Amino acid sequence: MTTQPLARCRQHSRTVVPLDCARCAVRELAVCSSLPPPEADALERHVFSIELQANGELARAGQPCRHAYSVTSGMLRVVRTLPDARRQVVAFVTPGHFFGLSGHKVHRYSIEAVAASRVCAYGLDGIDELRQRFPSFEHALLERACRDLDDAHDSMLLLARLSPLERLATFLVRLRQQMRIRGDDPFVALPMGRGDIADHLGLTVETVSRSFTRLREQGVIALPDPHRVEILDRAALEELASALH
Amino acid sequence: MTTQPLARCRQHSRTVVPLDCARCAVRELAVCSSLPPPEADALERHVFSIELQANGELARAGQPCRHAYSVTSGMLRVVRTLPDARRQVVAFVTPGHFFGLSGHKVHRYSIEAVAASRVCAYGLDGIDELRQRFPSFEHALLERACRDLDDAHDSMLLLARLSPLERLATFLVRLRQQMRIRGDDPFVALPMGRGDIADHLGLTVETVSRSFTRLREQGVIALPDPHRVEILDRAALEELASALH
DNA sequence: CGAAGTCTTGAAAAATTTCAATTCCGGTGG
DNA sequence: CCACCGGAATTGAAATTTTTCAAGACTTCG
Question: CA separation (Å) from B14 to A108, A236, B67, B113?
């Protein structure tokens, strides 16, 4: 676990900006596309866009849930923190992903920007209304929830039974997929710090760092710099990550 | 992780039996109740009931998904197994719970009876049809999926950051809730073996056993026998489990 | 260019797992 | 009804893994 530097609490880390859904870069990926095009306007009336700078906070644990979100650019982390500062990064959220529905009235997570990001926020009231009016919308949400649940179950197996090296390899493979990186592109960007990775994989920063080093020593990856991985031996990496694929 | 004894593969561990939904003990809890009463019949036409004896198999990883399930009595475990026999019990499923929807076409889990159990099986085709016809049904499924997702996230934090003692305490508290045990009843039945608990909490059998012993030595619980816990100091137990509540 | 924070590395400490008995419990059969 | 058998649970000791503590190197960004 790691502690959050003060830098994470900057002023003006959050800005509401105008919005043009028609030009949305992730429209095809987002839930927006599950609505019949004419009625998609209805969704847009409930939407506003938020710009976050790195480490800006979108929501904080304990606050009432008011919105669901969809990421347009950048990357967020969904973080659970215990009183004694133990931390778990439940997920890294990337463009096209919709999230924020929960069975609870109050946020149990903080949602923070890993890097500068833009997200669309949908009022939950509006969401509820749309769910009632458009079965295809509710359907899409349930499909997404089922996939999210599968992902969470994968993470449980990873946290419960994989070695640090396997966890890191799996993380890299999943991140690559999540970012929709082309098959022949060997580079994976790591916008998040080692502490976030550690808290995502249930390890310490040191163990994560040592695992990176081991992958490098084994010729599986190269690390041009700490925030960029080059995959040198894809087969070896996928073998290490084979438990979850 | 633990290996499965041969006893788990008995013949006749699975029986299809007639069904009377009107008398279902868990009807109020199950998704069935989300359908308008007259139309609930539609669901029943897609249902059949299965009786499993202890360690009987309801589904096996790798098989195509054909049904979703609802537990009527007993207890099931949802198990993920790696080729090298590492195992993770994703969840224990208790009466009233509906499960089996997933983003995948093929089972990634085995579903086995912890103790003699009865479950209702719904053909996925029928489910899909009902989802389309009855918005309230789809709505109920999404609500359930959101809660399941919250649960999975809780488990992730548990697996990533809690000590063995905290994990076991949390497990006992959650199991008590899940079984809807009355507030003043100090007993919790543990139908599952230590191996299942270990594979659920990401520990070894030995560590689970030692953790039980520590709880006993600290006067938090008593163990009349390995499958029955008496909670002696509820406050202490909940303090240990406080991270997840 | 320099300071602050981040990442890496090493060594010691702690925790959990592994290995190995022993004990306990439940079921079976005499 | 009781003794016995086999699997399950507990306990102990050694081994391994990961964490913790500490220091140094490297980035990044103002």
Answer: 40, 41, 15, 10
Residue in B102, B104, B156 nearest the CB of A88: B156
Q: What contacts A114, CB < 8 A, 6 or more positions away? A: A54, A74, A75, A76, A77, A92, A191, A192, A196
Where does the pLDDT of residue B8 fall: very low under 50, low under 70, confident under 90, or very high at 90 and above? very low
B245 near A CB under 8 A: no
The domain in which residue A74 lies consists of 14-157
Is A23 contained in some domain?
Answer: yes
- For B129-152, how does the pLDDT look when each residue is reduced to its tens digit (9 = 90+)? 989 988 988 999 999 999 999 999
Residue A155 sits at the chain B interface (C-beta within 8 Å): yes
User: Is the same domain home to B42 and B147?
Assistant: yes
Rounded, the Å distance between the CA of A194 and C1' of C7 is 8
Over the stretch A21-42, which tens digit does the pLDDT of each residue have? Answer: 777 877 766 777 777 776 677 7
Q: Which of B129, B194, B104, B208 is nearest to B163 (CA)?
A: B208
Interval B21-60: pLDDT, tens: 777 877 766 777 777 776 677 777 778 899 999 999 999 9
> Do residue A136 and residue A201 come from a single domain?
no
Specify which residues A47 forms β-bridges with: A122
**What region does A27 belong to: left with phi over 0, alpha with psi -120 to 50, or beta?**
alpha
Tokens 């080059």 sit on residue: A230
Give me the residues of chain A with pLDDT under 50, please: 1-12
* Phi, psi (degrees; rounded to nearest 5) at A239: -65, -45
CATH number of the domain where residue B63 is located:
2.60.120.10
Task: Render pLDDT for B184-201 as a digit per residue (tens, 0 to 9).
Answer: 999 999 999 999 999 999
How many domains, chain A? 2
Q: Does B80 touch chain A (CB under 8 A)?
A: yes
CB contact (8 A) between residue B157 and residue A132: no
Say what the pTM is. Answer: 0.93
| Cβ-based burial of A57 (10 A; exposed 0-12, middle 13-18, buried ≥19) | middle
Residue of B nearest to A80 (CA): B157
Q: Is residue A9 part of a domain?
A: no
Half-sphere CA count of B208, side-chain side, radius 13 A: 21
Report chain C positions within 7 A of protein CB atoms. 5-11, 15-20, 25-26
Is B65 in CB contact (< 8 Å) with chain A? Answer: no
Asked, for residue A4, whether it belongs to a domain, the answer is no
Q: How far is A152 from chain B (nearest CA, A)?
A: 6
Rounded Cα distance, B74 and B198, in Å? 20
Q: Of B157, B179, B206, at which residue does a domain stop?
A: B157
Cβ A191 vs Cβ A180: under 8 Å: no
* Residues A75, A55: Cα–Cα separation, whole Å: 10
Tell me the nearest-neighbour CA distance from A158 into chain B, angstroms. Answer: 9
